[in-house]
């Protein structure tokens, strides 16, 4: 568990933020300039806030009132930066060894063989960073952070420098890290689909303040707190893989509702989390028939939130969880949509991209 309370002024900007990061990935999510990096720097000990208290597990890293200010190297943190920052003259094995060198003596630390296996680094150990792809470098950086026996991992936009294909390559490794390493991860991101896949907890920031914090599915289903507003709104559902069919579709079950998606890379029985973007969901009063879309989720309208422009976000509670649909206000009026009404949310199978599906 990480507890953070900070107050700090930087010119015209004031950070006044409090949040708690339970085990798993806690994503700091907010627009550019909302204070994400300032928070990460304060946790890292690279910025001394005007006032603050930061507690990681049972260790007080900072308590300005009590005069406690642990030096950065004594905070037991692993860093994963945007651009990897590996030593170019060292091999992958030596770069990993550098992480272990930083681990305090006697600290329980990850085993090299386990880390190599977790991150798929076996074939890369004797190469230098110049001979690695961006995604491979990032996997080495994750391994190096893990081997330093951290009590907390800080990842500041670790995927921002990678193209979509490399991001898709790395995301599963962060999922494994989240699910296997048992170390809390504080993760900075702008990307709604990255957040939907990785976050256990989301801390939404605006102008230096926390405007929402809580489980990812809950915070992300509130379009009012998303940095890009309705454009990025979407729901996160938990689903279990039931079967793979011969026509290339996989059948899943989300709270008992069948979902058909393009074949997913997970075995029957596996739990997945799936992001369904609000703009891919259409609404119907009656259960549609003669429609090509395969996924129909009956539910009740929980909220209708008009946007600044012509659109509105409709939140629907279904047995699979809360779904969001982005419709025009004109359609909402023409359909007579109202809170408490029964509706059917309709999702095309192909609307759900592979990057929006992650381990649950
Ligand atoms: N040394 C400084 N002096 C004055 N203002 C600063 C200073 N450093 C940062 N700021 C301001 O503090 C605010 C928060 O910056 P911060 O880097 O934490 O934002 P961020 O959410 O990480 O943004 P990004 O996503 O663009 O990295 C910004 O408005 C920035 O301009």
TrEMBL record:
Q: Listed GO cellular component terms?
A: membrane
As one GO molecular function, the record gives:
molybdate ion transmembrane transporter activity
Q: Which InterPro entries match?
A: AAA+_ATPase, ABC_transporter-like_ATP-bd, ABC_transporter-like_CS, Mo/tungstate-bd_C_term_dom, ModC_ABC_ATP-bd, Molybdenum_import_ModC, Mop_domain, P-loop_NTPase
Which Pfam families does the record match to this protein? ABC_tran, TOBE
Q: In this entry, which stretches build a coiled coil?
A: none
Where does the Mop domain start and stop, copy by copy?
290-356
Keywords from the named record: ATP-binding, Cell inner membrane, Cell membrane, Hydrolase, Membrane, Molybdenum, Nucleotide-binding, Translocase, Transport
The residue ranges of the ABC transporter domain are 1-232
SMART domains, per this entry? AAA
Q: According to the UniProt entry, what is the EC number of this protein?
A: 3.6.3.25
Q: Which domain of life is it from?
A: Bacteria
Database matches in PANTHER family = ABC TRANSPORTER I FAMILY MEMBER 10
Tell me what this protein is called.
Answer: Sulfate/thiosulfate import ATP-binding protein CysA
Q: Which organism is it from?
A: Roseovarius mucosus
**Gene name of the record:** cysA
């Amino acid at each position: 568990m990480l507890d953070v309370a900070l107050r700090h002024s930087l010119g015209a900007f004031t950070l006044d933020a409090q949040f708690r990061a339970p085990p798993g990935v806690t994503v700091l999510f907010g627009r550019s300039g909302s204070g994400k990096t300032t928070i990460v720097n304060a946790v890292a000990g690279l910025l001394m806030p005007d006032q603050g208290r930061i507690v990681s597990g049972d260790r007080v890293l900072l308590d300005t009132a009590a005069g406690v200010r642990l030096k950065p190297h004594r905070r037991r943190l692993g860093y994963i930066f945007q651009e990897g920052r590996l030593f170019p003259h060292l091999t992958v094995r030596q770069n990993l060894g550098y992480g272990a060198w930083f681990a305090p003596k006697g600290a329980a630390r990850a085993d090299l063989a386990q880390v190599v296996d977790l991150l798929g680094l076996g074939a890369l150990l004797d190469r230098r960073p110049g001979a690695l792809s961006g995604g491979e470098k990032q996997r080495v950086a994750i391994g190096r952070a893990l081997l330093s026996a951290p009590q907390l991992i800080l990842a500041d936009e670790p995927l921002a420098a990678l193209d979509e294909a490399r991001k898709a390559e790395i995301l599963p490794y962060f999922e494994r890290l989240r699910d296997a390493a048992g170390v809390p991860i504080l993760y900075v991101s702008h990307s709604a689909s990255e957040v939907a896949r990785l976050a256990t907890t989301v801390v939404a920031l605006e102008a230096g303040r926390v405007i929402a914090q809580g489980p990812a599915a809950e915070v992300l289903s509130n379009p009012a707190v998303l940095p890009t507003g309705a454009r990025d709104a979407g729901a996160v559902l938990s689903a279990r893989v039931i079967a793979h069919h011969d026509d290339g579709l996989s059948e899943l079950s989300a709270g008992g509702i069948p979902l058909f998606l393009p074949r997913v890379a997970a075995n029957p029985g596996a739990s997945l989390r799936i992001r369904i973007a609000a703009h891919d969901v259409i609404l119907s009063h009656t259960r549609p028939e003669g429609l090509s879309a395969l996924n129909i989720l009956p539910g009740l309208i929980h909220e209708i939130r008009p946007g600044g422009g012509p659109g509105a976000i409709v939140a629907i509670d279904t047995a699979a969880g809360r779904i969001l649909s982005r419709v025009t206000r004109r359609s909402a009026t023409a359909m007579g949509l109202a809170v408490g009404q029964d509706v059917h949310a309709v999702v095309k199978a192909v609307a759900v991209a592979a990057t929006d599906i992650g381990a649950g």
